[in-house]
Amino acid sequence: MTRPTLEVADILRAQGDRFLERYRSSFGFQQLKAFRAILRCRTAALGGHRDACLRCGYQTISYNSCRNRHCPKCQAQARERWLAARERELFDTSYFHVVFTVPHELNVLALENPRLFYDLLFTASAQTLLEIASDPKHLGAEVIPAGGLSLDHRRWVRPRYPFFLPVKVLSRVFRGKFLAGLKRLHRRKKLQCAGPAAALADYKQFAKLLRRLHRHDWVVYAKPAFGGPMQVLRYLGRYTHRVAISNHRLVAFERERVTFRWKDYARGGKQGQMTLAAIEFLRRFFLHVLPKGFVRIRHFGFLANRFRASHLALGRQLLASSGSREQEVKTNDARSESSSLWHCPRCGAAMIVIQRFTAVELSACIYFDSS
Fold first, then answer.
1. Phi/psi of residue 346, each to 5°?
2. Is 28 a member of any domain?
3. Distance between CA atoms of 31 and 291, rounded to whole angstroms?
4. Entry pTM
5. What does each C-alpha distance from 299 to 47, 142, 247 come to in angstroms?
6. 81, part of any domain
7. Radius of gyration of the chain (CA)
8. What count of other Cβ atoms lies within 10 Å of the Cβ of residue 124?
9. What's the pLDDT at 339?
10. How many domains does the chain have?
11. Which helix or strand (DSSP H or E) is residue 143 part of?
12. For tag attachment on the chain, is the N or C end more exposed, with fewer CB atoms within 10 Å?
């Protein structure tokens, strides 16, 4: 992929001071930490290193990256390592991609309570899948891709529906679990209700909102991985180690206004362009900064850390003995490993680090390459 001509860091350097003047009072420490990291990423302020080609001897000096998980330029190697690890866990069977969504009326609570809200989203969706899958009326198994281990761990159970699990049932159970969790948090006075959510501090207003949300269907959908599980992994990989927006979606930055590409999912994913004032663009960007230590990739069911190794081995054994191979899963560890290396621009061989520099030492260097 070619290097983008415009980066979030460019907008920060031009408008960052004005942005902080307006929003510093409401800016959290994690947001400020991400702000500074993105601003300094791959600049002399973080030091650098000298790389050399193993084949032709070409050398160059590069700036260090910030490695902040909210930086659009970082996390590429971490994503490749994550994809390689997930490839090794794939079963030789079909997979489904299941998505749970919450109504937009809850956005105000999510903004004020990101950790609690996201924790509840993870818990409610995982419990919904595990509960419905274990019900003999639907699957009667510990859920694994398209099917699962029987409850006694003696056989592989295949889904009775072509759509894995009924989405209407998933939607209703998920809605009930999520709203019950919200009610519990409010009753224990753990929800912060400030700003746009201030009215919800009153239990009557909060209960009114819950009743309204309970009357509507929540959107949950499940679709088969038509391109195979690897396609789903690559799709997820675009989000697991990225936050807010990629630099490649930025189109222009002129007269204090930012234009970027976006998808209108309400119109079938139609591509469009949106232009915002730079300050507003940065405000929206930093809304996506996660709480400190928040784990955004979690494993439940057979992939839960406690039983992962034993369940993977048992699942493969039972799936093989079931006598049906639905889909061949191909992994490419060589691709994952090689893609995480920087290759020589002259001969294409791997580059290695032969010397590291502090910010002070780097300032004395004449030539640099911040790629």
1. -95, -50
2. no
3. 9
4. 0.78
5. 36, 14, 29
6. no
7. 24
8. 22
9. 45
10. 1
11. strand 141-144
12. N
Distance of alpha carbon 303 from alpha carbon 300, whole angstroms:
6
- Give Cα 169 distance to the centre of its chain: 26
CA distance 247 to 41: 13
CA triplet 211, 123, 190: central angle to 5 degrees? 60
> Terminal CA-to-CA distance of the chain, rounded, Å?
13
Which domain, by its residues, includes 111? 89-240
Write out pLDDT tens, residues 162-179: 666 788 999 999 999 999
* 359 CB burial (10 A radius; 0-12, 13-18, 19+): middle
Query: Which segment, 65-79, 257-271, 276-290, is predicted with the most confidence on average?
Result: 276-290
Indicate whether 11 belongs to any domain.
no
Angle at 222 between CA 184 and CA 332, to 5 degrees: 110
What does the block give as tokens for 172? 């209703």
Residue type, 81: R
Amino acid 121: pLDDT: 96
Does residue 329 sit within a domain?
Answer: no
Nearest C-alpha neighbor of 300 from the set 127, 134, 133, 182: 127
DSSP state of 64: P
Distance CA 280, CA 211 (A): 33
Handedness of CA 93, 96, 248, 269 (dihedral sign): positive
CA angle 86–289–275, rounded 5-degree value: 105
- DSSP letter for each residue of 168-229: HHHHHHHHHHHHHHHHHHHHTT-S---GGGGGGGSHHHHHHHHHHHHTSPPPEEEEE-TT-H
